[in-house]
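Kindly inspect both lines:
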Amino acid sequence: MGVSTSCGEKGIAVVTVDFPPVNALPVAGWFALADAVRAAGRDPEVRCVVLSAEGRGFNAGVDIKELQADDREHSALRGANSGCAEAFAAVYECEVPVVAAVRGFCLGGGVGLAGNADAIVASEDAVFGLPELDRGALGAATHLARLVPQHLMRALYYTARTASAAELHAHGSVWRVVPRAELPTAALELAREIAAKDGRLLRLAKAALNGIDPVDVRRSYRFEQGFTFEAGLSGVGARVRGGFGGSGTPGESGGPDAPGGSGDSHAPGGSGDDGQEGAR
């Protein structure tokens, strides 16, 4: 349980997230993930990082139990927002390309991670979405906008619906869609092809591509987070969460894309499996 890094193949580091039951990360988990990705990128022997997850889904966001026990200084809220920002930035700013291997649900904070990766390989059952408005939160539209066109992003955001891996593949943001059992192999195949290039040139290429990005991803996300704080401090976030209920599974029928469904979202959100949330 936690975040681990393995380097079983030359030039490739696999960073794996394992926070059962739904990979809704505690504050410390987000910072641990950021540290692991940055360390892998700094390793001169690494030319590509694969970001993967154990269990039912890729990522369901933050652990709401910490937020439910927050203090008057909003330490948990501030920690979750800072941790997510650091993890997302670590993926985007990693010195080498990052391949996200996405299985099952990729919600809230999961979209932040996948949206900042250089390439995505997804399982056929993968779904992507931001159930923030159903959880009394905001955020990660910056990253969803990297996966789908602007108007689709807005419709998905306002409705809290999800998009399938096949849909994202059609939009060009998912490199390949494979059966769930084949996901690790498919992600490593792409990583091997990338890692076969010259290491120094790959790092220059990553810096160059980030440099011509039309959106300052870190600044854009931080702008969104200001509204998350406003929702939290004004009480509207808690009011929305108070009316939330259900027992569905993230990304499935009755999940965050279905009205009244349970699941995991992004930062201050509704309760999900095992009392955990998911979004930022």
In short: The chain has one domain: 2-275. The longest helix spans residues 75-93.
